[in-house]
Structure formats: C-alpha cells, structure tokens
Design brief:
Aminopeptidase; single chain; 2 domains; about 270 residues; alpha+beta; GNAT family N-acetyltransferase
Length: about 270
C-alpha cells in the first residue's frame, strides 16, 4: 500500500468516527512498510487491512475497514485471508470492538483484557502539579525501546524511532531514572483534539507526572487515552482528570500473546497498531 492509499483508508476511518491522528499515514507506514494491504474495486481503493510485525513471533492486525458504499459485496473476506496468511505462523493480536468480538472469536481469537477509551476536556494544571517530565533526545531511544518491550511485550524499533520523534503536533515527554526510562508518554494532534499514547511507566507516580504534563499542553481541548483494564491505576488516573469512558475494545490474540510487564502500560499507543 502506498501512503496515498493509506491516507484514503484513514479518510474512511475519519468518516466512521475513529478520529485518526493528523500524521498517522506516515507514522503507521513506518511501523511496517509491507504490512498494509488494500483491495481495489473498479480501479479504486475499496477496503483495507494491516498486519504489522511487533516482534519475531507476533503481529498486530488493524485498519480492517471497507468503503461504506461497497460493504456487503464480499471484498473484506479475501483481504482478511490475505492478512492472516501473511502472519506466517506468528501469533496475531487485534483490538476488537464489541460488535465484532464474536466474529473474531469464531476465527480463533481469544480475549486477554479490555481497553477502555477515556475522553473529555483537558483541565488546567492544578497549582501542586509541577512538571517533572522532559522532552526526549535521540539518546533516550534505547531506554524507551526497553521500557516499551517490557510494558507491551512488543519489539518494534522502526515504529518507535518515528513515533517517539517530537515535532509540531506530536509531543513526547520522558522521566529518566539513571540510564532507564521511568516513564514516557506521547501527545499527538488528531482531527478532533488530542490522543495520548503510549503512556508507559514503571510506577503510578511516574505515569501521573508524565500524563499531567502532557494534558497541560492540551488545556481546554478534547483529549483521549486508551487504557488497558488490567492496569487499574490507569483508569483511576484518567478519571482524576475528569475523563469518562466512551467505548471499549477487547485485546484479542490468535496464538500465544507476548509477555507483558505487569501494570506498566497505562495507555495504548494506538488501537490500530497495538
């Protein structure tokens, strides 16, 4: 899939209310340039799916969407089959909306936990919240990769090298602990407001500090964060900011899931790529 086709796919997602990030086409392709598939109908893009490698034994499936006016014509099934064949024996994960979880279960996927999207208006920083996090530098990437691998079980250096690169509309904050990353979080501009993710931390205190610093930058705008429900402190942090759950997905795997560090993932990078 070329970037222009991925832009088209994200336009479909936008129409469905997925609220993609403004730079997601470029960021997504960086994760796995060969991992995005598209089906044509009469010479025009009609349906898409992605299967992005997240380690030698695991891949993540997403962006499974068909153009609204072409649904029900049998375009999605062959595309699904092509993506699953591309897995080549790897375990495949996805974040499935409630309405589709039964279909995924029939394909051999099993839920490991739920992911809850919290959303609301970013509050002003309270007087006692002092900024502890800092913008990252290139030398921080190995420590961030190590934290990401421990928190998610994924090994995705190509994705992180771009996703963790600060620029206009894409803020990355970090708390260092010697040579380790104690916490890291990303705030990225979307069609509507901002999304926070990932938010990874070795403690709830560090997660809170990074989260509050990022939220302060979006003060008065709508913010969203996708929270794994097997990290109870994450939901509590979101609620402490006045955010409320607006929908949920299930993290599902066909095959053994990767080993995740207990309680270190406070916010998912993106539901499309894991």
């Amino acid at each position: 899939m070329h970037q222009k086709d991925l832009v088209t796919t994200l336009d479909w997602a936008r129409q469905e209310g997925w609220n993609p990030g403004r730079d997601d086409a470029r960021l997504f392709l960086s994760a796995d340039p060969e991992g995005f598939l598209i089906a044509d109908h009469e010479g025009a893009p009609a349906a898409s799916i992605s299967l992005v490698g997240v380690g030698p034994g695991h891949a993540f499936l997403g962006l499974f969407i068909c153009r609204a006016d072409l649904r029900g014509r049998g375009l999605a099934g062959p595309l699904w089959d092509a993506a699953m064949a591309q897995a080549q024996g790897r375990s495949v994960g996805l974040d499935g909306v409630v309405a589709q979880q039964g279909r995924y279960a029939a394909q051999g996927f099993r839920a490991t936990h739920r992911t809850l999207r919290f959303a609301g208006i970013a509050p002003a920083r309270s007087g006692g919240d002092e900024g502890r996090s800092e913008a990252i530098v290139a030398a921080d990437l190995p420590a961030i990769r190590a934290l990401d691998r421990q928190a998610t079980g994924f090994d995705r250096p190509g994705f992180l090298s771009v996703w963790m690169q600060p620029r206009d509309g894409h803020v990355v904050h970090l708390i260092r602990d010697g040579t380790e990353a104690a916490a890291v979080g990303v705030l990225r501009a979307c069609d509507v407001g901002w999304k926070i993710g990932p938010l990874l931390a070795r403690s709830a205190e560090a997660a809170r500090a990074v989260l509050h610093d990022l939220v302060a930058l979006a003060q008065g705008d709508r913010i969203m964060i996708d929270v794994p429900d097997d990290q109870p402190d994450a939901a509590a942090l979101a609620r402490s900011l006045g955010l409320a759950p607006v929908f949920e997905t299930a993290r599902m795997w066909n095959g053994p899931p990767p080993p995740r560090g207990t309680g270190m993932e406070y916010g998912v990078a993106t539901l499309e790529l894991g």
